[in-house]
Amino acid sequence: MKKHIPNIITCLNLFSGCVGIVLAFNGQLIDAGYAILVAAFFDFMDGMAARILNVSSPMGKELDSLADMVSFGLLPAIIVFQMLQSAPAIEYDDSWIKYTAFLLAIFSALRLAKFNLDQRQTTTFIGLPTPACALFILSLPHIAMSSNPIVSAYVQNPVILLILILTLSFLLIAEIPLISLKFNNLNFRANGYRYILLIVSVCLLAFLQLTAIPLIIIVYIILSLIQHSRLPS
Are 35 and 19 in contact, with CB atoms under 8 Å apart? Predict the structure, then answer.
């Protein structure tokens, strides 16, 4: 029975993504973002459960990718699609722009397929992980509801959203080594950059809550580039 526990948790990740999609299509983008958070929790727990129980299988790996595709690929794309659908009109015909949101789903699929085959991604990630991309997306409705009208207007601008779509799509498949948050031990010297990222993330979340996520992703990429530049070639 214990070998099925991680897969059950993975299915809860998938279920959370499905619920989030329904919420997103109903225009409840904040709640859809919370569904991403719940899915991310289960995504973390299934891996932990597999390590604790010392069980793993090829099926579990494939099921995890399929669940991630829904929760961290399709659901974020639908959130952005809905934001573009309700965004203020711009000077030229922008009816096609909302469909570019699904580039996030396409490049998430490419990212997940690549991850399953890439033997280099055991201790580091190559390209932005799909959960990180999804967390970035879930922050956008929160920023759009910001009390700062200038910030809110920028996030709801179709051109800005299009730039974010293209940037995140590129980062998903980019050959950029990024820090994995898997701790093999608690040694600070070996995990210094991970600890810095966690401390900065906690501080930013304490002050800015979910609107801090884009800043955290930027810090994550910068720390990863610094770490990689210091590694011996």
Answer: yes
What does the block give as tokens for 224? 């990863």
pLDDT tens-digit series, residues 33-83: 999 999 999 999 988 888 888 887 888 888 999 999 999 999 999 999 999
Element housing 199 (H / E): helix 188-208
Which neighbouring-strand residues pair with 126?
Answer: 177
N-terminal to C-terminal alpha carbon distance within the chain: 45
In tens, the pLDDT along 171-186 reads: 999 988 898 877 565 6
**What domains lie within the chain, and their CATH numbers?**
2-176 (1.20.120.1760)
Closest CA to 114 of 129, 100, 102, 101: 129
Rounded to 5°, the CA angle 29-15-56 comes to 130
Contact partners, residue 157, CB within 8 Å, separation at least 6:
87, 88, 90
